[in-house]
Amino acid sequence: MTSQVEAASSTGVPKQPGPAEGESALPELRAMWWETGVRARAEAGVLAVFAELPRLLAEALRTSWRADRTRTLVVAGSTIGSGVMATFGLLATQRVLVELFAAGPTPDRVWAALPALLGLAAAIAIRSGLGIATGYALNGLTPRVDCEVERALFATTTAVRLDAFDADAFADDMERASRGSSSVIDLVEGALNFLAGLAGLLAVAVAVVVIHPLLLLALLVATLPQAWASLRAGHERYRTYIAGSVRRRRLWLLHQLMADRDSAAELRSYGLRGFLLDQYDRVMGAETRIQLDLARKVTTTTSLGSVVGGVATGAVYALLGILLLDGQIPLAAAATCVFAVQAAQRALTAVTFQIDRIYAEGQHVSDYTGFMTRAADYLPAERAGRPAPGPLQAVEVQAVSLAYPERNSPAVDDVTLSITAGQTVAFVGENGSGKTTLAAIIAALREPDTGAVTWNGRPLHDWDTDRLRERIGVVTQEYHKWPFTAATNIALGDIDAEPDQHRIEAAAARAVAHDMIVELPHGYETLLDRTFANGQDLSGGQWQRITAARGFLRTADLLIMDEPSSALDPRAEDALFQAIRDRQGRATTILITHRLANVRHADRIFVLDHGRLIESGTHDELVTAGGQYAELFALQSAGYQSPR
């Protein structure tokens, strides 16, 4: 925590860094996924924005078309229809005014204007109906776009190889892609709203040209100043947003520290309330001053645009007066032009807002589409028609090596060993010796860089991977606390088989978890997540029992148990290892643990050091050999002897 807030406390008010300043110094200074779009918008000029617009619009329309063709057509048709009706409405308005301003008795003028008036009413009604149709179609389109895009993302992230998550670039890509998936619908909505606003502008332009071509120039003069001011103000907002990225990350961090359940106990134990509130006041004070300065700049820009626009609008009205006095346009046309100017200003405001939105959200969508393309490199190779493996007879590890990215030495280094059906074997060694990585390779979760692992004499990649994994159970050291009921947490161990309650309880009993679960408020139906109503939290040891039960549920030929008892009390640990010993001779078990007393019964013990296999044998053989295993066992044994 200190490393993440010390900069704020040492300087009082954090300075505003440039886009890349300090990003490698502290985690909080790293550019975050939610800033990608606004950072791009802040750095892009107006010409760059307009140059990118066609591609982003095309991407939005393609996505919308894939998600729901019918609703996309409805929106497109309604948008075009609304533009046509807007044009017709302005022309009908002009005709109504022409008839009303004509000479003659009032009743005659009203009757003469009635057809145009009815046409205007019809245009307004049709346009309103089209607006309702557009809203209805968009409401239905939104969940379909969300579903298609998110499901495609999750289908990819759950299919890529495990080694993908070792690459920093992949993790960053995936984080940004998650933001991009939620931006797709914003891009689609922004694109459709932009096209609707553009249709409105074109409708006004057509109507004005029909009245008098010179009025089109006047219309541009009246509307462009405010459009410029709107784009300029948006640019200033984006620049300020990016300049404040460090402050926002600090604020987000402080929000987490002061309102998170995980930090609540230590916050109170060390009396950190005043310290954290002081950090908040410092950072928020700077943020408030920046926002006030932004408000001043934006107000100045928009006010200037309004003043220039007002002057330009006044010039347009003066031009209308001159044209009226010269008899070049009738009074009805001038009045219609006033309506057109107001309509154009409203449409242009909407269009400029959507341009900023499309560009910013489009960058996030580009992150998404780019990730989906690059993630294909991490997808497992398709091997159609691979056979399903039979019951385990032997596993052979042949000169296997694997190195993680940006590591100086391999995690597993030229390891060769064999395991026969029914054996219980143990992988032991100090932290970082490669035990867990080797087990993951045997479990077909990782592919070695060199060497091979065979199941019944055939390389793992020659078998149907899904069917192979059905024969392997894995209890991981870094287990996940799934936010489901206790029964479901155990059932995840064999979810495809839809295990019944009897099997679930039997697995829990073997893992010494049954009595603990029964004592929960709702027994096996207790939700194991405190963030939901009536949810419960478990201790580390209780969670470890649930995890072990998940592994026991699957009637696996090979069960890999990685540190299954690190948080268990002595009684529970003894019962768990008794259940593991019961498998000996019937099924195959790979046991990884630092508690060497629990591996004395193993048929064979493999000792690893810095990724290399340095010893193997039974407990008695290794103790007699006097190597690393004997040394580690002696150290642990000494801890249980009475002091002299």
TrEMBL record:
<keyword id="KW-0472">Membrane</keyword>
<dbReference type="InterPro" id="IPR039421">
    <property type="entry name" value="Type_1_exporter"/>
</dbReference>
<feature type="transmembrane region" description="Helical">
    <location>
        <begin position="72"/>
        <end position="92"/>
    </location>
</feature>
<dbReference type="InterPro" id="IPR003593">
    <property type="entry name" value="AAA+_ATPase"/>
</dbReference>
<dbReference type="InterPro" id="IPR036640">
    <property type="entry name" value="ABC1_TM_sf"/>
</dbReference>
<keyword id="KW-0547">Nucleotide-binding</keyword>
<dbReference type="Pfam" id="PF00005">
    <property type="entry name" value="ABC_tran"/>
</dbReference>
<feature type="transmembrane region" description="Helical">
    <location>
        <begin position="304"/>
        <end position="325"/>
    </location>
</feature>
<feature type="domain" description="ABC transporter">
    <location>
        <begin position="397"/>
        <end position="635"/>
    </location>
</feature>
<feature type="compositionally biased region" description="Polar residues">
    <location>
        <begin position="1"/>
        <end position="13"/>
    </location>
</feature>
<keyword id="KW-0812">Transmembrane</keyword>
<feature type="transmembrane region" description="Helical">
    <location>
        <begin position="214"/>
        <end position="231"/>
    </location>
</feature>
<feature type="transmembrane region" description="Helical">
    <location>
        <begin position="112"/>
        <end position="138"/>
    </location>
</feature>
<keyword id="KW-0067">ATP-binding</keyword>
<feature type="domain" description="ABC transmembrane type-1">
    <location>
        <begin position="73"/>
        <end position="360"/>
    </location>
</feature>
<dbReference type="GO" id="GO:0005524">
    <property type="term" value="F:ATP binding"/>
</dbReference>
<protein>
    <submittedName>
        <fullName>ABC transporter ATP-binding protein</fullName>
    </submittedName>
</protein>
<dbReference type="InterPro" id="IPR003439">
    <property type="entry name" value="ABC_transporter-like_ATP-bd"/>
</dbReference>
<feature type="transmembrane region" description="Helical">
    <location>
        <begin position="184"/>
        <end position="208"/>
    </location>
</feature>
<dbReference type="InterPro" id="IPR011527">
    <property type="entry name" value="ABC1_TM_dom"/>
</dbReference>
<dbReference type="InterPro" id="IPR027417">
    <property type="entry name" value="P-loop_NTPase"/>
</dbReference>
<keyword id="KW-1133">Transmembrane helix</keyword>
<feature type="region of interest" description="Disordered">
    <location>
        <begin position="1"/>
        <end position="22"/>
    </location>
</feature>
